[in-house]
Amino acid sequence: MEQNVSIELQTTIEDNGTKEITTIKEYGKLYKREHMHLVMYEEKIEDQEKIKNMISIQPDKVSIRRSGAVKMNQIFREGERSENIFHHPYGRIHMDTYTTSIDYQPFDETKNGKLVMNYTVKLNGQQSQKHFLVLKITN
Hints:
By secondary structure, the chain is an all-beta fold.
């Protein structure tokens, strides 16, 4: 099943007492399969090529794949550590991620969807930062 949806992705990063909040609002598509929801949308950033985003939500994991101006493939499993390389126009960054919690309320005809994740990230072996991600899926 395929459905046009509105996406709001808010990411909060806490680092040494400071907070950086980023919000992205786009239109995209939601694909529903038996044990997976797939959200796809494109980000438009000034003076750069588009970034294609694919968020796969399954009972035991969430994966975020980005391609275009930046590239990454990050897998989140509650209570587990994962690693990946984030490629962007200015170089590569090694990401070491530990996922604390994942909560998903599926989108359907009667209610909006919401994915909430808490995790920490070490970039290139530096001190870890707390990340809080909220993805809202609406009509």
